[in-house]
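Exercise 3.2. Students should predict the tertiary structure of the chain below and write it as structure tokens, then compare their answer with the key that follows.

Predict this chain's 3D structure.
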Amino acid sequence: MTIAAPSAELDFLGARVRVLEANDGLGLVDMIEVPAGDMPPLHVHHDHDEGFYLLSGDLTLLLPGREIALRPGDFVLAPRGVPHTYRVGDAPARWLVISSPSGFERFVAEVGTRGIADPATLAEVAATHGIEILGPPGMLP
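Answer key:
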């Protein structure tokens, strides 16, 4: 098992984040401060499950035919192969993202390090990490 030291803070699509763990079986990202109202593009992870453990704020996970409202201390899993997005409530939120097996944290690190914001480039980079962008921010599953 390879364990990486926590990264410096990165700007990941307008959110302050830090990669905490990266090994073959588990990835862990601290979404330190995600702006109020933030909603990423609709996407699906083909290679890993994505778990959300909310630390502060309000977060709604949007899955096909289902919305799951999280409050601090709640955990929810977005299984691989299931399209999803999320929406942050009226104040900034903080949560941990757990990916199993690892993978999402490498996507976060690449996007944050390279400063990628262009939708076409984001989709290309996401694809190299087993993530398919299905639609623009605001599109629901």
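Discussion points: The first strand starts at residue 10 and ends at 12. The chain has one domain: 10-133.
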